Amino acid sequence: MDILSILFYLVASVIILSSIALIVVNNTVHAALLLVLIFFNSAILWLMLQAEFLAIVLVLVYVGAVLVLFLFVIMLLDIQVKKNISKKMYLLFSVFISLIMFIELYMVIFYHDFASIQKEITISELGNTYDIGLSLFTNYIFSFEVTAFILLVAIIAAIAINLNVKQRSLKQNPGKQVLESKESRLKILKDEEL
Amino acid sequence: MFNYINNIFNTLSAYFYDLSSLPYTLILIGMIMVPLLTLVAYYTYAERKIIASMQGRLGPNVVGPKGLMQPFADGVKLFFKEIVIPTDSNKFLFLLAPVITFTVAFAAWAVIPFDSVMVLSNINAGLLYILAMTSLGIYGIIIAGWASNSKYALLGAMRSASLIIAYEIAMGFALVGVIMISGSLNLGDIINAQKGSIFNWLWVPLFPLFIIYFIAGVAETNRAPFDVAEGESELVAGFHVEYSGMGFAVFFIAEYANMILISALTAILFFGGWLSPFYLEDLDSFQINDQINNLLLFFINDGLHWFIIKTFFFMFCFIWFRATFPRYRYDQIMRLGWKILIPLTLIWIFVEMILIYFKVGPWFT
Q: Is B243 exposed, middle or buried (CB count within 10 Å of its CB: 0-12, 13-18, 19+)?
């Protein structure tokens, strides 16, 4: 067994164990941090497949941005673990959901003969960052632009939702602050005028 | 002497891809870590001395000649302090947070090219790797703030995290400008794209992006004037308020290592890294058997010393800012980040696009 397969089994077992721990732990902050661990180890797996661009982007986007916002919300919400829900309900739901997922995965893997799909991946000398960029902006330019457009709509929608909330908080108006001058705020009075 | 170090580095680098040469890799890592940690120690000393002279004080001057042993005195003091773990805190995460911050701060140095050959790992996606590593730095801060079980620490961590998220976008866009010119994510290639004199460096065509990058860098390291995360008058010390002794020291070292990293990156991306500001076309014809001239020639030529000089200049700027600017208010920081810096970077990327299309100057050919 060479060092790469040892590393693979190590990383894979970390992913599986922390995935199990993720759904078992009670503390939501711990769960989010376990998700960070899973993403990080998946990045290592991709790195071992020489997909360094995808690996780094996984760390950059999911670990560095998305999960930070997750943690952000979870830490500020002060979630209390509800104890009155019986564990039977949990069990019922989890069995139901995992059954659906199992059937779906079964259909994908065995109906379409997943194992026989083997495409030769050629990486040019300039590295796969270059290759991905090239194919994204030539062959897949339409889907790339559509994805970008959907994301833009999502951003605008998120901002619009927040703008419509009535402002109850006391906020500074920076525009007014900038326009304020010394003359409008301070006045020097002489003794006689008092 | 630099050539001598280069030779050692080359010989050692040849073994790098072989896994049986793990000790060599460790030596290479040590060759980066040890000078870096020494630099961090004396950066704190320099900060106190420079700010003192800007404010008309003396600064540390008791331990050793001119107070030069002060960093070691501080280190020993912190080492022997008791580590207090707050009640009801999450002990595992509380101890993990400084380790994460420290690891991430130093991991980014793996791809920094110190010289045309002196680089630990010359990967093609170097810039992405650095972005990924610096974005991981938030975890140390957030976990520290949450695990401390303290309101001050949690508020400091949240402020710091939102600050980093806001300024990371502007920073990323500034880097897009650099990538558009160099056409590569490899830091060595980015420097090679700036070859020539001081006016060929990217700070000339990308001046607004350079300013924005440095501002975002100052904000990301939580330094003044963006240090709301540890604003003494509001939050005592922010996310590391509950840490004492070595826990605090590790956060402190990581913060200074990050400052040095931002300075080094600014020098690499916008100021040509190891390149010399002078451009001599026929440098080889200057072969004069004169000791002084040779020394001068060595100084004028490209080399590690230029990288160090440039990095030191930006490190000085960090201290300069701290002594000069008053602290921003939290909403002012957010306004600056989201409403001024990000639109500015987008505008300049568009301008750069036009400049590239018309092949302006020596930069866009």
A: buried
Residue A12: give the domain boundaries.
7-79
Q: Which residue has the tokens 């909330």?
A: A165
Q: Is B183 left (phi over 0), alpha (psi -120 to 50) or beta?
A: left
What's the pLDDT band for B287 if we cut at 50, 70, 90? low
Distance from CA of A194 to the nearest CA of B (A): 35
Establish if B176 touches chain A: CB-CB under 8 angstroms: no
Closest by Cβ to A56, choosing from B19, B129, B161: B129
Q: Higher-confidence residue: A194 or A71? A: A71
Task: Please judge whether B125 and A52 are an interchain contact, meaning their C-beta atoms are less than 8 angstroms apart.
Answer: yes
DSSP character for B75? H
Our count of domains for chain A comes to 2
Contact (CB<8Å) A56/B158 = no
Cβ separation of B185 and A129 shorter than 8 Å? yes
Chain A, 122 to 141: residues with Cβ < 8 Å from chain B are: 126-127, 129-130
Q: What are phi and psi of B51, to 5 degrees?
A: -65, -40
Q: Which residue has tokens 């994510």?
A: B185
Asked if residues B138 and A63 have their Cβ atoms less than 8 Å apart, the reply is: no
pLDDT of residue B263: 92
**What is the rounded distance in angstroms from the CA atom of residue B60 to the CA atom of residue B335?**
38
Whether residue B362 is contained in a domain is answered as: no
Structural contact between residues B16 and B1, judged by C-beta atoms closer than 8 angstroms? no
What's the structural domain count of chain B?
Answer: 1
Domain membership of residue B55 (yes or no) is no
Q: What is the mean pLDDT of residues B169-196?
A: 84
Residue B48 lies in a domain: no
Q: What is the mean pLDDT of residues B236-262?
A: 85
Residue A96 lies in a domain: no
Nearest CA to CA, how far is A88 from chain B (Å)? 30
> How many contacts, defined by CB atoms under 8 Å, are there between A and B?
70
pLDDT on residue A147? 92
| Residue B241 falls inside a structural domain | yes
Q: Does B123 touch chain A if contact means CB atoms closer than 8 Å?
A: yes
**Residues A12, A74 within the same domain:** yes
Q: Nearest C-alpha of chain A: how many angstroms from B136? A: 5
pLDDT for residue B156:
84
* Main-chain phi, psi angles of B19, to 5 degrees: -70, -25
User: Over pLDDT 70: what percentage of chain B?
Assistant: 88
Q: Is the pLDDT of residue A80 over 70?
A: no
Nearest Cβ partner for A72 among B93, B158, B332: B158
Return all residues near B215 (Cβ < 8 A) that are at least 6 apart: B167, B170, B336, B341
Show the domain range for B285.
91-357
In a domain, A194, yes or no: no
ipTM metric: 0.73
A47, part of any domain? yes
pLDDT tens for residues B188-220? 888 888 887 777 788 888 888 999 999 998 988
